[in-house]
Amino acid sequence: MIRTSISSWLAVRCASVLIGAALVLPTWVLAQDDLEGDALDEAVAVRQQGNVEGQESQKRIDSVSAETESLFTRYQNALAQIDSIRVYNKQMEDLIAYQETEIASLRDQVDRVELVSRSVTPLMLRMIDAIDKTVQLDIPFLENERTERIKDLHTLMGRADVSNAEKYRQIMEAYQTENEYGRTIEAYRSTLTLGGAEVKVDLLRFGRIALVYQTLDGTESGVWNQQERRWESIDSSYRTAIKEGLKIARKQTAPDLIRLPLPVPARGGQG
User: What is the sign of the dihedral through the CA atoms of 249, 252, 258 and 261?
Assistant: First the structure.
């Protein structure tokens, strides 16, 4: 009987405990859920904050990376410019060295030119004097033109703005012109003093061999006597030949043989 009572009591006691535990369980579970919810919210907040900080960090990283890349590009450009400047400086050094050599050469040439000029100038003056003497002793054709040419050469020699090379060139050109007179024929009109009067005539030059004239009406003809340095009249038998020679010189007719009076060479004395 006593065992039965104890057993009954124990059963009732256990049931009470279980009922009490059942009553207490929902409150603990709810508390646990609240704690987990808070922890989850905090974790989400931390995660979100981490994401924000991560984005900001990434932005800073991107900014630093872009700045680094820009600096690196500028550095490379600076190196390229330095290389270009080195090449340019080397070229300039070579150019300056070449110019210094050229300057030294030019100075040497100038010194030599000055030396040569001191020798060339008297030579050119003698050449002009020789042309002048030739014109004075030559048969009197184109006297005004040839005299003016010599006068221009003397004026040229006194000009400081004309180089010696140009002066020499013009002197040689005058020599060439005088040389051409010896192998050409020429007809031109001029005025001669004949018998104390000035007469317009046609002059015909055959090289330096003969110089003849004929009045415009063809009635009078003459030849220059080089030995006596004067004009001499010739007979009318040369009238037609002189007219033909004038036409040939003026290219009005084809070249042909003509008969002209020629000066007789002077005979040398016998010892």
Answer: negative
**H or E stretch including 77?**
helix 2-137
> 11 is written with which tokens?
């059963």
| Residue 63 predicted with pLDDT over 70 | yes
Mean pLDDT, rounded, of the chain? 82
pLDDT at 244: 92
Tokens representing residue 49 in the block: 């904050």
Which residue in 213, 200, 209, 219 sits closest to 245, CA to CA? Answer: 213
pTM of the model: 0.55
DSSP category for residue 203: E
Is residue 232 within 8 Å of residue 225, measured between CB atoms? yes
User: What are the CB-based long-range contacts (under 8 Å, 24+) for 109-114?
Assistant: 113/164
pLDDT above 70 (res 30): no
For 232, list phi and psi in degrees, rounded to 5: -130, 140
Asked if residues 175 and 127 have their Cβ atoms less than 8 Å apart, the reply is yes
What are the φ and ψ backbone dihedral angles of 210, each rounded to 5 degrees?
Answer: -145, 145
94 alpha carbon, distance to own chain's centre: 21
What is the residue type of 159? R
Closest CA relative to residue 121, chosen from 178, 152, 165: 165
| Rounded Cα gap, residues 236 and 182, in angstroms | 27
DSSP string, 114-157: HHHHHHHHHHHHHHHHHHHHHHHHS--SSHHHHHHHHHHHHHHH
Using DSSP's 3-state secondary structure scheme, residue 198 falls into strand
- Which residue shows structure tokens 């221009």? 152
Residue 189 host element (H or E): strand 185-194
Q: Which amino acid type is present at position 156?
A: L
Q: Which residue ranges make up each domain of the chain?
A: 185-261
